[in-house]
Specification:
- This protein has about 180 residues and is of the alpha+beta class.
- The chain is built from 4 helices and 6 strands.
- It starts with a helix and ends in a 6-residue tail after the last helix.
- About 20% of the residues are buried.
């Protein structure tokens, strides 16, 4: 008990996050995109929540996505063809709630620096919501990155280019800027 008391507000914050997680687990989860009931599906040793017969999206708890996000990971292949209802229309502009954490909005951001695929991530539990087709795009993007690296085609950020330009300019002026 002394240990809990010494943690103070952090202990309360951890307990609230754990309570939200298990509350959602017990009552079943709703799809954040179309509000369909999510179904637990086992892929390899992983259990994920899918919107079967709805929008076809997938919920990954924290650290699960990286176990299926590469084309070489066979378990992820099953998640590429989730049965969906083509009549279901998803409003991509609407803010979505985390299916695990009651009252917490998902944050939309690009999955990688390549800025090709936008995903929804929970700032509380670290889970990811992927709309139908996004997992396939992520797997393709990762395989393209691997091929680029293998072929020696490294991508260079604009910051690196500016830095190299400044170095070159400084070497021409003897290190003096005018």
């Amino acid at each position: 008990m002394k240990y809990q008391a010494s943690l103070g507000p952090q202990w309360v914050k951890i307990n609230v996050a754990v309570k939200r997680y298990f509350d959602a687990k017990l009552k079943g989860m709703k799809c954040p995109a179309c509000f369909n009931e999510l179904t637990q599906t086992q892929v390899g040793s992983l259990v994920v929540d899918v919107c079967e017969g709805g929008c076809g999206g997938v919920w990954f708890d924290a650290f699960e996505l990286q176990r299926v996000d590469e084309e070489t990971e066979a378990a992820g292949a099953h998640l590429l063809n989730i049965r969906r209802d083509e009549r279901v229309q998803v409003d991509v502009a609407r803010k979505r709630e985390c299916p695990r954490c009651a009252g917490v909005k998902l944050k939309r951001h690009f999955f990688s620096a390549r800025r090709k695929v936008e995903v929804d991530e929970c700032p509380n539990c670290g889970g990811y919501w992927l709309d139908a087709g996004e997992l396939a795009q992520i797997r393709l993007e990762k395989s393209e990155s691997a091929l680029d690296a293998k072929a020696g085609r490294a991508t260079v950020s604009s910051e690196v280019i500016r830095y190299l330009y400044r170095l070159q300019a400084d070497s021409r002026t003897g290190g003096h800027r005018h």
